[in-house]
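User: My instructor asked us to take a sequence, write out its structure as tokens, and then describe one feature of it. I'm not sure where to start. Here is the sequence I was given:
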Amino acid sequence: MHAQGRSVGLGLALISALAFGGSGVAAKPLIEAGLDPLHVVWLRVAGAALVMLPVAWRHRGLVRRRPALLAGFGLLAVAGVQAFYFASLSRIPVGVALLVEYLAPALVLGWVRFVQRRPVTRAAAVGVVLAVGGLACVVEVWAGLTFDVLGLLLALGAACCQVGYFVLSDQGAEGEDAVDPLGVIAYGLLVGALVLTVIAQPWGMAWELLGGSVDMGGTPVRAWLLLGWIVLVATVLAYVTGVVSVRKLSPQVAGVVACLEAVIATVAAWVLLREHLSLPQIVGGAVVLVGAFIAQSSTPKPPGDGPVAGGAGPAAKGEVHDAEGALSAGRTAP
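Assistant: Let's start with the prediction itself. The structure tokens for your sequence are:
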């Protein structure tokens, strides 16, 4: 029975990675057709919030119990990550944007080390160095930053917001007042939709574009089909399967599958959008993934016995350990 549950968990984690990895590929043609990136984000989040409305109603008690958690989750994990990520897509390739976002585990370690002033494991530090070095190859620093600097900064903004997601993932996970993660996701989407409504001002959107076709690597595709994929598959399905997979797997195992998201996004962009990367960029991307995996999966000793960067026991459980579960339970990746 345990083996069967593990197999189901692995399947769900893979579905989540596939769903998240396809969001950028579906969104970029809409952005290039003339839709503002913020409008695409609003459509994604508002549509997903509408689908998750019954779940939000079922967990309506969370509004009284954890208003700060819901607000923070909506602002950072939903609105912030998606807005920065989609804005970066208008300036840099999908694969590069997602690989930059995968610096988030390294940034979480920075939070633990320099803000919380807690030591981290040597393996985690090595993972950070690898991730940063790989990113240097991805952006080809020797060529004087081939990619748009603003696009890279926007992708880094998505990574920073994802750190907030990781940190918030520790709140309400255990104890007598533990909250259902599906409820947090549902209200996070609602909060994000409200915030993005004010920022994106969708009443000025070019709605007529949604009724036509857009170019996807030389192939015309109906805009509403891409939007439907973004809302139903790349958001709702991705979040829900991710959360369930974490419950059936250990965070470490789910984190391994989660690393496939960047690979899936890069390959999909290569095939569907004709966004070809050079050999150094491909190698650098692989190094980023390896470094991020090491940084988020290193298992430390309890705080009293050695350095910490996460852990399995209650006493050692910190942001980085929960980052593994959060990464699998609902990244942005957009």
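For the description part of your assignment, you could build on this observation: The CA atoms of residues 84 and 305 lie 39 Å apart. Try explaining in your own words what that tells you about the chain.
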